[in-house]
Amino acid sequence: MASTIYVTLLNEMVDTSAGLCGTYDNDPSNDLTMKNGEITTIVSQFGNSWEAVTVGETCTGLGTDNPCDTYPDRLNSAELMCTMLSAEEFEDCHSTIEYTPYYDSCIYDICAWGDTSDNIMAVLCENLQAYSRECASENIILDWRDGVCPKECPGLMVYKECGSMCKLTCATSNMDLSQHCSPECVSGCECPTGFVEENGECILVEECPCVYNKENYRSGDVIQIKCNNCTCNTGQWSCSNDVCEATCSVIGDPHYITFDQKYYTFQGDCDYVLAEDYVDGKFSIVTSNAECGSGMSLTCTRSAIVTVSRTVVTLNPNLEVLVNGRVVELPFENADLAIVQASSMFVVIHSYSLRVEWDGIFRLYVTVQPSFMHKLRGLCGTYDFNQNNDYMTPEGDIETSKIEFANKFKTSSECADLVETPTITLPCSVNLFMSSFAIEKCSIIYQDIFKPCHGFVAAELYYDLCLYDVCGCDSDKSADCLCGAISAYARQCANAGAAIYWREDSLVNEYCAVQCEGNSVYTECSQGCGMTCSQLAFPCVQDDFCVAGCICPEGQAISDNGECVPYASCYCTFEDQSYSPGHVLERPCMTW
């Protein structure tokens, strides 16, 4: 059967094209230029010269015989049918577009393909449509299909002889298509005025769904994106414009993602101001970075000191916590702050508009509320939604070099400045032994298990971070580095609403599987309240952040012997003494 292909070239393609469509140089006399550059008058010779034979394919070439000579019995019906081009339905265009070439083509095609009445009509309609389309390109719209080549459209769609090359859909309903689409028109089915196409059907514009993370939402649906509510309205999201809290992340060897989401890596070996309120002096956080890499001068965050008013909290490895120099049991609370062990993996500090999470290895997260906007500086940047000034020094200057910027936040002059090198050497280019392992294991971030998160959190940054840490890690800490890097991505996913249970995946379970003790269970998203019996009476601050780790099932807490027990079985504590459930403690003038 015959078919039609239209190729449109822009003006800048003049004198640059050749092939079966001719030379496009405004000279029709050389359109039959063969592949070897010679001009012929024999159409079959011209066409055969542009054969594009692929491997394993054999072309016989086109002969010179006219199909009307081969099938003379088809000629009369071909001439009769093709005279349609001279009918009154087409005469408005005759003075502009010569129809004779289309008439000759129509006869040729019917002789070649018109072995059945259905094929004859199909070929006729193809040729009539080709002429109609050429007329439409000259703004002459013909009404010729009724009774000859009728078109049926599905549903509410209507057939247009000159429709837009860009369909009006829900996705394009709010776009100025004239900026993107050719003014040239095409025939076909499209939705009537006031309707747009969605999944092959015509719907009213106000019924268009909104899309978020590849999910469709109906008009009127409300979702939460960060701290703002977004309402679907005729295919577009309309969101509140509240200022949201911001989080600074310190991950691995160490990589920094500032409050304003600027990413950089800094391998300084000293104590540095991570974040401080330099306006009101409400808090400061200093991190201690020390060597931890595989002989490549890589460093990691080993501990942190959080100062709030007169309280100084030291966060040490293995989740050890000191308050004003003394080791404390958690939970802890005073007038300045509260500290809880939110899960088996994280200690969390709450204070006014500040939240600090520490995993006891080398991940630290600092979250601040909008009351700290325009008041912060340090390795975490400025928190003003402007990445361009994140490298602001204590003197208020804006550095262009991350090394020069970070060096200025050292808290001790006894440490040497990190020296900036002209070239950046990535650990995997040096530690070839770990490179293949890192590439294989870190690829889990791109695997299907994390697919529900890919629309929320870009994977590339965390994949690169994973490669960097695994190749740069000491061999005896490769599991910590691998799992810590993947956990950093999983945390972002969980906080975006896509909790991924990845640790049992066969690609990494040998290194990252977690064995919970005392009947506790692993979760990627706990709220960190009521982990232990001693925390039940503690006013735990519950917020929207997910904390990964082992926690007790709902309605249970960890007892003094490390087992999850129902709340009613928890011992009570008074003046450092424990009392079993049901015990009555008598005191002067009161009963407990």
Feature tags:
20% helix; 592 residues; eight-stranded antiparallel beta sheet; alpha+beta; single chain; 23% strand; Laminin
* CATH homologous superfamily annotation of the largest domain: Mog1/PsbP, alpha/beta/alpha sandwich
User: Architecture of the largest domain in CATH?
Assistant: 3-Layer(aba) Sandwich
Q: Please, how many domains?
A: 6
Order of strands across the widest beta sheet?
A: 12-11-10-23-22-21-20-19
Question: What is the CATH topology assignment of the largest domain?
Answer: Protein Transport Mog1p, Chain A
> What structural class is derived from the secondary structure elements?
alpha+beta
Task: Report the mean per-residue pLDDT as an integer.
Answer: 89
Report on the biggest sheet: 8 strands, antiparallel
End-to-end Cα distance, whole Å, is: 95 Å
Low-pLDDT residue spans = none
Number of strands: 32
- Computed Rg: 36 Å
Helix content: 10-25%
Shape: elongated
Please identify the top-level CATH class of the largest domain. Alpha Beta
Annotation field: number of helices: 13
Which band does the percent of strand residues land in? 15-25%
Describe the structure.
- The chain is α+β, with helices and mostly antiparallel strands and 592 residues long.
- The protein is 20% helix and 23% strand.
- It has an eight-stranded antiparallel beta sheet with strand order 12-11-10-23-22-21-20-19, with helices on one face.
- The longest helix has 20 residues.
- It starts with 42 loop residues before the first helix and ends with a strand.
